[in-house]
């Protein structure tokens, strides 16, 4: 059988050009500065850590870091950056993870929470986070604002090349889904990865967090000087009870 492309696991191939396209050292610095104002303690779990730039930066600042991600290829790149081998990188699903340890704070950065495709999945995530935090521990994440869906009402297309790999990145809005269709061209057939990010109501998310034992505080980056996170909410959820 053959077709123009085969369905691949997300980030299986995108990982090869992810840092070249998405890497943003200045953005990581600003994100870390924001985190330093809200994290508690020193033992931190970076959920959906990807290629690990944020994990590594926090580790260099003295935090005791664990990074968890679903994608082996993304984790391999992250591990390669951790020259001192002091970060624990784990392949796992943030919806079902069970690490049998507790962290002072948990982070999930750069719209990774938007990969939760239903309120049930968000509930699973928040339950897992609750289980891995002590009382008073915090969970910090960013989340696309609804404006993102309007912004991509007019689809966005970008083409480029990273080394031998050509890419076409298409983003379209299909509420509540923000769909990224990424076509990669190297040798042979094009490879297509379709990433769907879901944008649910902020009020629903706040309510779920409260149900799952958190008190939450929401910041609009538009109100914070120098924060680069366009059109995302920054949500700090502090654990106030077990569930
Ligand atoms: C946009 S990238 C962000 C990576 C990293 N947090 C950063 O700031 O660069 C999203 C990441 O979420 C991961 N991911 C998506 N769904 C996941 C899940 N259910 N469990 C763990 N990781 C997941 C992907 O593998 C990918 O590495």
What is the fold's blueprint, element by element?
Elements: H1 15-22, H2 25-38, E1 43-47, H3 53-60, E2 64-69, H4 72-81, E3 88-91, E4 105-108, H5 119-131, E5 138-144, H6 147-151, E6 156-162, E7 165-174, E8 177-185, E9 191-198, H7 202-211, E10 214-219, E11 232-239
Parallel strand pairs: 1-2, 1-4, 2-3, 4-5
Antiparallel strand pairs: 5-11, 6-7, 7-8, 8-9, 10-11
Helix pairs in contact: 2-3, 5-7
S-adenosylmethionine (SAM) is lined by residues 11, 48-50, 53-54, 69-71, 74, 93-95, 109-112, 115.
Summary of the model, kept short:
With 243 residues, this protein is of the alpha/beta class.
Question: Which descriptors apply to this entry?
Answer:
single chain, 243 residues, alpha/beta, Rossmann fold, seven-stranded mixed beta sheet, four-stranded antiparallel beta sheet, 30% strand, globular, binds S-adenosylmethionine
Q: Tell me which CATH architecture of one domain applies here.
A: 3-Layer(aba) Sandwich
Number of helices: 7
Biggest sheet record: 7 strands, mixed
CATH third-tier fold name of one domain: Rossmann fold
* Mean pLDDT across all amino acids: 93
User: Which structural class do the helices and strands define?
Assistant: alpha/beta
Give the helices and strands as they follow along the chain: HHEHEHEEHEHEEEEHEE
Helix content: 25-40%
Name the CATH superfamily classification of one domain. Vaccinia Virus protein VP39
Radius of gyration, CA atoms, in whole angstroms: 18 Å
Report how far the terminal alpha carbons are from each other: 49 Å
